[in-house]
Amino acid sequence: MPDIERHLPLKAVDFHILLVLAAGPLHGYGMVKEIEERSGGRIRLEPGNLYRYVRRLVDEGLVQPAGERGASAGERRRDYRITRLGRVVLGADARRMRDLVAAAAARVSLPEEGV
Amino acid sequence: MTGRAARPSLSERVYARLLVVFPAPFRREYGADMLDLFRDRHRDATARGTLGLALLWLRALPNVLVHGGLERLAVLRSARGWEPRRALASARRSLLRSPVLSVTIIGTLALGIGSTVALFSVLRGVLLRPLPFSEPDRLVRIWEANPTLEDELRGVSPWNFADWDERLDGVAAMTAWYLTSGTHRTENAAEEVRGAQVTAAFFEVFEARPLLGRTFRRDEIVRYGPAIIGERLWERLYGRDPTILGRTVSISGADYEVVGVMPDAFRFPDPSVEVWLAWDLATVYADRPEARTWRFMRAAARLEPGVSIETAARSFRAAADALAMAHPSENRGWTTALAPLHEDLVAAVRGAIWVAFGAVSLLLVIACANVANLLLSRVPERSRELAIRTSLGASRRDLVSGLAAESTTLAVVGGTLGLVVGGWLLKAFRAYGAGQVPRIEEVGIDGMVVGFTVVVSLATSLVFGLAPAAYAIRGSAVDALRVGTRTLGSVGAQRARQAFVAAQVATAITLLTGAALFRSSLERITLVDAGFDPEGAVSFRVSVDTGPEGPPGTARYFRALIDDVAALPAVIAVGAAQTLPMDPVAGDFERPYRPVGSTVESADAPPAAMRIVTRGFIRAMGIRLLEGADFDGTETPDSPPTAIVNRTLARRIWPEGGAVGKALELDWPNGWRPFTVVGVVADVRHDDPRLPTREEVYVPHGWIPYQAMSVVVRTAGDPASLVPALRRTVASQERLHPAYNFVTLEGLRRAAIGEERFLSWLMQAFAALSLALVCGGVYGVIAYSVASRRREIGVRMALGAPPRVVARDVLLRALAMTGVGAAIGLVVVQTVAGPVDALLFEVSSTDPVATLTGLGAVAAVAALAAYLPARRAARVPPAAALAAD
User: Fold this and answer.
1) How far apart are CA B631 and CA B639, in angstroms?
2) For residue B1, what pLDDT is reported?
3) Per residue in B633-679, pLDDT tens?
4) How close is the nearest chain A Cα to the Cα of B31, in Å?
5) Cis peptide before B835 (omega within 30 of 0)
6) pLDDT of residue B177
7) pLDDT value of residue A114
8) Of B400, B516, B627, B793, which has fewest CB within 10 angstroms of its CB?
9) pLDDT at residue number B525
10) Number of folded domains in chain B?
11) Where a domain ends, among B310, B333, B356?
């Protein structure tokens, strides 16, 4: 495996973006809507910051453009997809957090809310 | 990019333009994606109307500016060979080369940004930031309302409140309070403290948690008490002693157990409150069914989650309707009105703050235009410098980053100074607005304000710094090395400068018209006859406890005090009343009245404001006695009731005159009672100089000895210098009855027209600044154009044009520029007229005098600014035409 540790821990926003893309390729609007929903409205991305994060993730090889979609359908928006490396990093970070949660649960009692 | 069927909206086009902020490679890769996302957001936003669109831009604009800048920074940092320190050092050198210009720019920016920052802080702290309670959106203010009254909103009466409390749906908790004050005593000290009587659920409604102890329990309150004290009082008088819980405090002669201490952060209903006294309406008013008409309490409720204010208002109205049926003689015609608590609290200042913020934004625009103008004036020399650097091998990117470093340096220094200036202004403003502007103590410079400053500074430097830079670079390549004075300054730059001046003129006219309007509004309100003479009088408040002698003792106390004060040197007249005109410390109440012989019921009788006064009060206030005489001072609770009425009331019941000796009836506790009129006085604008006078009835203090009174002292000398002697006199009466709240009547009046004074002062300051800036702007452009056309003018002179004509042409050019700006300005004035009119007294924004004042001032300044260059043009020797470049 290439150097995964280099990417860890993921920033919260990067984690969200990767998580959303893990379900399938998506365009900007789809990403921000789903991230907004997932974060209960706390993370609201505008074009300016979203694409700076995307640029960084592309530079790091975690995300790549999925090419122009359906010029036929008149739909012009470009999708992004998670790379294999992206998937591996996302999984690694999720595991890292799970271990953290487990460690915390051993010390303090966590509220029993729906997971 | 593929073509699109639909034409992009204006927002999209603007947004596409804005993307220039991002570095070109980034734009090429992601620009289209960003635009797509913006378009999606835009579609969502337009579905929500204008507000949605405004919110969209409010988010998108800073987002693009900030992240564009950050991305550029990231690119610069990764590019080899770019050294920020060197770029900054070179920027500093370049700025220091023309120190006057740099200082002028930085000063202009600091002033413009500083005033904007100060007013933005106020706007945010007072109007925008949610109230400091948990889930403040669920809090509403409750009023009783009677549509037949001129000012229809009234407080809430104890019995109506108690009845709603039992039958309302959608309300989680509800409370009523009354602001009061009492004398807090320890063994050997006495101090007047402000307090609030509050019903049991008060702290539940605001979800306030005590620092120490607990809040009130419903079942523990009988009449009044226990008490909760404020952190400041706890610290001042008890040294933060935790054993305070369970001890008693003595307030105005009664003892109350302390059950809690509230943190200083909790400041409701007023920041001055230091004691909250539990208040049980059912026991206090048990034998007072007539209290149903005493609409003096303030009330608020916390709605259940998810219940809208409209729904709650409906259920309140239904309850009020039921009560009007059940108690027609007290409640007929009365309903309720709800308002969001935040809106209600700031209603009085909302308009003034928005107008002030609007004005300061205009000032910032003018300041920015001036900065741009100053930078444009340097285009010629910069063009030459840049051309030389280009020929020496500098790339275009080097030039741009150099210029950007300069503008950014200017913006950072200007913005930082602006933040400092803003801090000062804010401090001055807080001192000025203390006690007058709600929530002013919450106003401060926080993260959001700093963020606002950063965005404003960066936007200013980018927009106004880079545009000139673009001209400089464009001009540099071709012309500049030819070193001809004629070619200096491209035509484009000159045109841009004229446009900036026109914009300045437009904004300046708006500000000047505003200044003229608010000034005239202030003058008119100052001319209003308040009905009393504010000059040469001072007042203070004393409250006494009910002693063993009861009410007659209170009457005797005040009689003795007034006699002693009257004996002081230079005192002309003394008297006391339970409430003073324009005094925010209200002890105001009103009673329904009717002529003797009328059978009209309480709910249908008009209310008269009650003034409980001692003999001498009318003279001490300088209120004109129109008929009859003052009270004779011998009244007792048992003597037949007498009254003095104001002219409005006398005219209303006895239009044919001759009020003295006749009687009117007041709905007193225990029913209607007749009062014989002994005098008629002029109308006093009691509440507000802007509002017409209400009916007023003065009754003698001897007959109803009120315990808290404001004593008014009229003196031949300086009223303020009398204060120490007055303090001593009060102290000599009885040691533990302190005098407090000293204020001159002039001071009360000034505070009452504070809004007019503030807006008038602010607008005049802004207008003066804008005039100075316009003057500089016009002078700069005209002087520059004369200098650059020197040769052309020389040719005209040589061909025989008289100097007068040459000068006139120059002046006309200046006036044309001004005219375009003026036309735009007049349109702007008309568009902002609505909100401004609401703040004006007896004058409207269409007032021709104000508009003409604005036009005249700008035209005069423009002509003045153009005069010197015009004269210079007239003196150009014809030989200039031949002069070598």
Assistant:
1) 12
2) 41
3) 889 888 999 999 999 999 999 999 889 999 999 988 778 999 999 99
4) 9
5) no
6) 94
7) 40
8) B400
9) 84
10) 5
11) B333
Same domain for B502 and B433: no
Domains and CATH numbers, chain A: 8-107 (1.10.10.10)
Q: Do A55 and B30 count as a contact with CB atoms less than 8 A apart?
A: yes
Same domain for B383 and B472, yes or no, is yes
Place of tokens 């530079």: A59
Contact A46 B26 (CB under 8 A): no
Is residue B38 a contact partner of residue A47, using CB atoms and an 8 Å limit?
yes
Give a yes or no: residue B139 inside a domain.
no
Mean pLDDT of A85-114: 82
Answer yes or no: do B713 and B637 share one domain: yes
Question: Chain A: nearest CA to B29, how far in angstroms?
Answer: 9
Side-chain half-sphere exposure of A111, counting CA atoms within 13 A: 2
Three-state DSSP class for residue B628: strand
For residue B123, the 8-state DSSP code is I
Report the gap between the CA of B344 and the closest CA in chain A (Å): 29
Amino acid present at A109 = S
A25 reaches B (C-beta below 8 A): no
Q: CA–CA distance from B280 to each of A51, B202, B539, B863 (Å)?
A: 61, 12, 33, 72
Assess if residue B343 is contained within a domain.
Answer: no
In a domain, B748, yes or no: no
Instruction: Return the pLDDT at B58.
Output: 80
Does B63 sit within 8 Å of A46, measured CB to CB?
A: yes
Q: In 3D, which of A57, A13, A66, A11 has the Cα closest to residue A38?
A: A13
CA distances from B524 to B63, B532, B763, B877 (A): 47, 17, 17, 55
Distance CA B557, CA B730 (A): 10
Do B75 and B94 fall into the same domain? no
**Beta bridge mates, B191:** B184
Query: Do B346 and B124 contact (CB within 8 A), yes or no?
Result: no
CA distances from B555 to B67, B561, B609, B762 (A): 72, 10, 21, 47
Q: Which residues of chain B have pLDDT under 50?
A: 1-5, 478-488, 884-885
Contacts of residue B775, Cβ cutoff 8 Å, sequence gap at least 6: B861, B862, B864, B865
**What is the span of the domain harbouring residue B280?**
147-333
For residue B226, cis peptide bond before it (omega within 30 degrees of 0)? yes
Q: Give the residue among B716, B712, B753 at the shortest CA–CA distance from B527.
A: B753
- Are the Cβ atoms of A54 and B68 closer than 8 angstroms? no
* Cβ-proximal residues to B259 (8 Å cutoff; 6+ apart), any chain: B213, B214, B215, B216, B226, B227, B228, B245, B246
Q: Are residues B312 and B410 in the same domain?
A: no
- State whether A28 and B33 contact (CB < 8 Å): yes
Helices (H), B601-673: 617-621, 647-653
Contact B648, B695 (CB under 8 A): yes
B56: contact with A, CB 8 A cutoff: no
Within-domain flag for B485: no
Residues B598 and B726 in one domain: yes
B403/B392 Cα distance (integer angstroms): 17
Please list the alpha-helical segments (H only) found in B124-261. Answer: 158-167, 202-205, 231-238
Residue with tokens 């129109």: B626
Same domain flag for B356 and B327: no
